[in-house]
Write a structure and sequence with these properties.
By secondary structure, the protein is an alpha/beta fold. The chain contains five helices and eight strands, in the order αβααβαβββββαβ. It is 25% helix and 20% strand.
């Protein structure tokens, strides 16, 4: 999975198909991308959380992940949080597909772009036709521009799945 918000539809989907959650990749640690983490791990204790080093730190801080300001503080620092790094590749499901990670700080210092075959997960760093929000705390307008240019190059010939439905 990529990001985890509303947990109920995910659990229903997995239960109907007699599946389990092995892992979730976080594009960054803002509230709307992480608020289902605790419930997911409660349902599936073996589930791994994969994210950048900054996002791991932000998961554990309601100030950095901004949940402190929306009335539902979240601080998560379980042993199941693993960091991924620029250029790292991971084989999923015991073979193909392979996923490659690119750190693309912009909207948030922990933004992560992932490429898997002909699909690219661009999180909130690149939403075609919308732009990137850089007015939130810890965002970097200059870094956003560089990351967006990089993502556009990485996205050539790929289906773009951004952080929000557009």
């Amino acid at each position: 999975m990529v990001d985890i918000g509303d947990i109920e539809p995910v659990v229903d989907y997995l239960n109907i198909r007699n599946l389990s959650a092995a892992g979730v990749f976080l594009t960054h640690a803002h509230f709307d991308h992480i608020y289902g983490v605790e419930a997911l791990v409660a349902h599936y204790p073996e589930c791994k959380i994969y994210c950048t080093e900054y996002s791991k730190k932000a998961l554990a801080s309601d100030k950095l992940n901004m949940t402190k300001y929306n009335g539902t503080p979240l601080c998560y620092s379980g042993d199941n949080v693993a960091t991924v790094h620029e250029g790292e590749r991971m084989i999923l499901f015991g073979g193909e597909p392979q996923i490659e990670f690119f750190e693309t700080p912009s909207h948030n210092p922990g933004c992560l772009t992932m490429v898997m075959g002909d699909v690219i997960f661009t999180d909130d760093s690149y939403m075609p036709g919308v732009g990137t929000t850089t007015t939130l705390p810890y965002a970097d307008k200059e870094q956003a521009k560089l990351s967006m240019e990089r993502i556009v190059t990485l996205a050539e010939g790929k289906r773009i799945l951004s952080g929000h439905k557009i």
